[in-house]
Automatic annotation (TrEMBL):
Keywords: Oxidoreductase. The keyword Zinc-finger does not apply. The keyword Oxidoreductase applies. InterPro entries: CO_DH_flav_C (IPR005107), CO_DH_flav_C_dom_sf (IPR036683), Diverse_Substr_Oxidored (IPR051312), FAD-bd_PCMH (IPR016166), FAD-bd_PCMH-like_sf (IPR036318), FAD-bd_PCMH_sub1 (IPR016167), FAD-bd_PCMH_sub2 (IPR016169), Mopterin_DH_FAD-bd (IPR002346). PROSITE patterns: FAD_PCMH. It comes from Nostoc paludosum FACHB-159. Residues 1-221 form the FAD-binding PCMH-type domain. It comes from the Bacteria. This is Xanthine dehydrogenase family protein subunit M.
Length: 324
C-alpha cells in the first residue's frame, strides 16, 4: 500500500483550502471504499483529509422536505424514525446495502461517490478506460455478467453500485456541493454522467469541491425498493428497482421508477412512468410496463438474463407498491 499523509480538519473552509493546495489529496470520512481502492493500487492519494469533525452529520426535517448531512452514517439514516415513515424507499435501500458493520462506518456522501465494482477496474492487471483513458475496456470482451444493459458505451460498460442513489433518484433529490466560492445544488439526475467517450468522468463534482448535504423534497407517494442479487446479504444488485406511486381509486395518477445494477448511473425509466399515468392497477398494466422498460436494453455476452430480470423485478415491485 502506498504511503500517504493524514490531515484532520475542523471546518469546511479548511477542508476545501487543504485539498486545493494538494491536487492528489482526497477527503475521507468512513473510508469503506477509498481505502480499498488505495490498497489495490487503483487510486492514488498522497494526503487523506479527515472530514469527520465537520458539522455535516445532521438529519433535518424542513418546511419543504428533508436535508441529510453528507457524513451521516448509513445506519443512522436507515433507522431514523421520520425517514422510515416518510421515505421508506431510503430505509429499504440502505438495509439491503453492504453489511451492518459497513453501514455503521460508511457515509451518505461517500456512498454516492463510491467507484464502480467492475473487477476489471479494480484490478490494475487489466486494461480499463476509467483508470487509463484510451487503453481499452477489458470487460467488453471479458466476463461481463454484472455489467450494464442500458447507457453503456464502447469505452465502458460498468454499472453504478449505490442502492441509495437509486432510491434518491425516484425522490428527485438534490446534491449540495460546497467550493471555496459558492454552493452548487445539482439534481441527482444531472449529477451522474454516462460514460460516452469519457468514462473516467463519472459525475459533476469538480476538484476542490465537497458534498455537504442531500436535500429531498416533500414526498406524498407510496415507495418501495426491491433488490435481486446472487445472495441474500452483502452483495451488489443484479437488478434493483425503486418505485414511487400516487394512487387514487385503483388508478396510478403518477409514477417514478429507477433501476439499479443495469446502467452506469441510476437508470430512470421515464417512458414507463409516462405510460403508467392514468392506468388501472392490474396485471396487464404491469406486464405492458415491463415490456416497455426493456426496449432500450443492449445486453453483453454474459448478461442477457438481465432483460428478463428487469421485467420481473418491475412487475413484482409494482405489485408490492400497490398493495402497500
Amino acid at each position: 500500500m502506498q504511503p500517504f499523509s493524514y490531515a484532520k480538519v475542523l471546518s469546511q473552509a479548511a477542508a476545501i483550502a487543504t485539498i486545493k493546495q494538494d491536487k492528489t489529496a482526497e477527503f475521507i470520512a468512513g473510508g469503506t471504499d477509498l481505502l480499498g481502492l488505495i490498497k489495490d493500487g487503483v487510486q492514488v492519494a498522497n494526503t487523506l483529509i479527515d472530514i469527520n469533525s465537520l458539522p455535516l452529520g445532521d438529519i433535518e426535517f424542513q418546511t419543504h422536505g428533508i436535508r441529510i448531512g453528507a457524513i451521516c452514517r448509513l445506519s443512522d439514516v436507515a433507522f431514523h424514525p421520520q425517514i422510515q415513515e416518510c421515505y421508506p424507499v431510503i430505509t429499504q435501500a440502505l438495509l439491503q446495502s453492504a453489511s451492518p458493520q459497513l453501514r455503521n462506518m460508511a457515509t451518505v456522501g461517500g456512498n454516492l461517490l463510491q467507484r464502480v465494482r467492475c473487477s476489471y477496474f479494480r484490478n490494475p492487471v487489466f486494461t480499463c478506460n476509467k483508470r487509463t483513458p484510451g487503453r481499452g475496456c477489458a470487460a467488453i470482451s471479458g466476463y461481463n455478467r454484472m455489467h450494464a444493459i442500458f447507457g453503456a458505451s464502447e469505452h465502458c460498460i460498468a454499472v453504478h453500485p449505490s442502492d441509495l442513489a437509486v432510491a434518491l433518484t425516484v425522490l428527485d433529490a438534490v446534491i449540495c456541493i460546497q467550493s471555496a466560492e459558492k454552493i452548487r445544488r445539482i439534481s441527482i439526475h444531472d449529477f451522474y454522467l454516462l460514460p460516452g467517450e469519457t468514462p473516467q468522468t463519472e459525475n459533476l463534482l469538480q476538484p476542490g469541491e465537497l458534498i455537504v448535504a442531500i436535500e429531498i423534497p416533500d414526498f406524498a407517494y407510496k415507495s418501495h425498493y426491491l433488490k435481486v442479487r446472487d445472495r441474500a446479504s452483502y452483495e451488489f444488485a443484479l437488478v434493483s428497482v425503486a418505485i414511487a406511486l400516487q394512487i387514487e381509486q385503483n388508478i396510478i395518477k403518477s409514477a417514478r421508477i429507477a433501476f439499479g445494477g443495469v446502467a452506469p448511473k441510476p437508470w430512470r425509466a421515464w417512458e414507463v412512468e409516462e405510460f403508467l399515468k392514468g392506468k388501472a392497477i392490474n396485471k396487464a398494466t404491469f406486464t405492458a410496463a415491463a415490456e416497455l422498460a426493456i426496449q432500450q436494453a443492449k445486453p453483453q455476452t454474459d448478461n442477457e438474463f438481465k432483460i428478463e430480470l428487469v421485467k420481473r423485478v418491475l412487475i413484482r415491485g409494482l405489485s408490492t407498491s400497490c398493495r402497500g
